[in-house]
Amino acid sequence: MGAGLFSVAGTLLLPGLAALVQDWRLLQGLGALMSGLLLLFWGFPALFPESPCWLLATDQVARARKILWHFAEASGVDPEDRSLEESSLVTELAMLSAGSPQPHYQSPLGLLRTQVTWRNGLILGFSSLVGEGIRASFRRSLAPQVPTFYLPYFLEAGLEVAALVFLLLTADRCGRRPVLLLGTMATGLASLLLLAGAQYLPGWTMLSLSVLGLLASRAVSALSSLFAAEVFPTVIRGAGLGLVLGAGFLGQAADPLDALHGRRGFFLQHVVFASLAVLALLCVLLLPESRGRGLPQSLQDADRLRRSPLLGCPRQDHLPLLSPSDSCWAGHTPQQR
């Protein structure tokens, strides 16, 4: 969420920077320079250290101990203090490092050996692709309704902020899966209505549906990334999240297709992504709910995240073939029934 807000800030600052520079070559060079500064984080690990959770999950106990000690010293805590909490951490790290375990890395191909995790990742990648790819259709429908040049640009940036604020207010309160389901439903409904009534709907209705579609599609793509970070296990969380984000960038790559053969290319792209949005709506129902649960550490932990019904027993996982009625009674005595 925070990264999305920084992205919006850059979007809003870009027109002012372009007006100040007035040379696209210099502007491109400034962008490349700022991106090159990010390499400093790679060259100086103290500025951006590795995750201790990932190091412990991959049996790199020595590196994890060094980073945790660095965190303790930076926080003003003496890592050699033998209080109860610190001594338990020291004891646990000593037990983990017993026998000098070798680092154990997991390849993203390991997802193919899982039963549930690969499906969850595939669904989230698919929803991210649809959320990013369908935005070109809403932009094209919005353009005739907003004749000024800069207004659609700033309107889309404002809608991105609104989508992130909406997720901040609802994702923890209502859960990830219901909010993703609502966003996918709104995206598909707005797309189908624009597709069916493009020649019959009044201008204000077209504008409202385009704004709704842009808002919902941005919420879907952002929540898919957040959901992926909670569904993939620690050992391959970075790779899994990268795959989901890559699917979103693949959807963005379809933007120029609406210019092929004029109106026909736009209509074909709109039909395809509207159909994919309806399919994504059905696939989201298969996802588990990650709210209130600990992050999975291993592939086995991630496979234990099963889907749960939207209503009733929301915090209990269920096997895919177990009916919600039976699972809601699971764990109750006959007297309680």
UniProtKB/TrEMBL annotation:
Membrane topology: Multi-pass membrane protein
GO cellular component: membrane
Keyword Transmembrane helix part of the UniProt annotation: yes
Segments traversing the membrane: 28-48, 150-171, 178-201, 207-228, 235-254, 266-287
Coarse class of the protein's main subcellular location: membrane
Keywords: Membrane, Transmembrane, Transmembrane helix
Domain of life of the organism encoding this protein: Eukaryota
GO molecular function, one term: transmembrane transporter activity
Ranges for domain Major facilitator superfamily (MFS) profile: 1-292
InterPro entries: MFS_dom, MFS_sugar_transport-like, MFS_trans_sf
Subcellular location(s) of the protein: Membrane
PROSITE patterns from the UniProt entry: MFS (PS50850)
Annotated signal sequence range: none
PANTHER family associated with the record: SOLUTE CARRIER FAMILY 22 MEMBER
Name listed for the protein in its UniProt record: Solute carrier family 22 member 31
